[in-house]
TrEMBL record:
Keywords: Nucleus. It comes from the Eukaryota. Its main location: nucleus. The keyword Metal-binding does not apply. It is found in: Nucleus. It comes from Aphis glycines (Soybean aphid). The keyword Nucleus applies. This is Transforming growth factor beta regulator 1. Transmembrane segments: none annotated.
């Protein structure tokens, strides 16, 4: 190592000397560092502006959806009233006879009926009760999948663990709401203290299971396992067979009909004991977990 004085002399002669190659490299590195600092600052500013825009757009979406929910029923009633006031009874014109022969009267056109599948009595299977099978929408692929049909107006209830106390039962009301080209799914408890709406059954069901796991003190003790359709009762054999009887189900391309085989029914009944959809299955799983630990 050089002494301190010799080191300073070497630095003055080589580094601080403008004609030295080290001084050129130092200036070049200094310029690169300065450019990187400015570029990093510009990127940070752009990211912060983008985040602010995203927050503004999210708040606008929430505001517009609230307004839409308020005005949607009013628009439906106003449109219906306008249609009833504008429709006038038209008097049939007398057709002139040609060569003494009167034309044959035409048959009146059949009125278009909604494809609503009526349920005479509620269908009960285990912890699920189906009150309305709704109307099959087949002109958009979001109202069905390969193993389930999501009819608009579908309404069912399921008994499961309470979202605030897993040791007490709670009745959850499950609905499929028609919202344009894609449906909206809703889970709400009987007392209307809990309500979640999503674009899929799995989204709503996962939110409920996350609350149950928080009560248990673990994030993934009870996995959701994509049981949203099952929680809504849409995979039950009686429901699927009833929906498949409707002629509109044939136009649901991609949907695989359930065959009349006992194995299919038995596998679905076993799946109904999953802790993510069954109150008894949940407590059986918890008891096994406690016995192991």
């Amino acid at each position: 190592m050089y002494p301190v004085d010799n080191r300073n002399i070497w630095i003055n002669n080589h580094v601080n000397n403008p004609n030295s190659p080290y001084d050129y490299k130092r200036k070049k590195l200094k310029k690169v560092i300065r450019d990187m600092v400015y570029e990093n600052a510009a990127i940070c500013d752009e990211i912060s502006l983008t985040q602010e825009k995203i927050l503004i757009v999210r708040e606008e979406c929430k505001f517009l959806t609230k307004k839409l929910k308020i005005f949607e029923p009013q628009l439906d009633t106003s449109i219906a009233s306008v249609n009833t006031t504008q429709v006038k009874k038209s008097t049939p014109r007398k057709k002139a006879t040609t060569n003494g022969v009167t034309p044959k009267p035409r048959r009146p056109a059949a009125k278009h009926k909604k494809n609503i599948i009526e349920v005479q009595e509620p269908i009960t299977s285990g912890n699920v009760t189906i009150y309305n099978l709704g109307e099959i929408v087949y002109d958009t692929p979001f109202y069905y999948s390969d193993c389930a049909i999501y009819p608009a107006g579908y309404y069912a209830s399921r008994t499961y663990a309470h979202f605030r106390n897993i040791f007490s039962k709670c009745t959850y009301h499950c609905k499929v709401i028609k919202a344009g080209s894609s449906p909206r799914f809703e889970i709400m408890d009987h007392d209307k203290h809990f309500k979640v709406t999503g674009l899929s059954t799995d989204e709503c069901h996962s939110h409920l299971i996350s609350l149950i796991n928080k009560l248990l003190g673990a994030e993934d003790l009870i996995p959701a396992n994509r049981n949203g359709d099952r929680f809504f009762g849409l995979t039950l054999p009686p429901v699927r067979m009833k929906l498949q009887e409707a002629p509109e189900s044939k136009f649901c391309t991609g949907y695989i009909p359930l065959e009349l085989q006992p194995d299919n029914h038995e596998s679905e009944l076993k799946a109904e004991s999953d802790p993510a959809v069954s109150f008894e299955g949940l407590h059986n799983t918890l008891n096994r977990f406690r016995s192991r630990h």
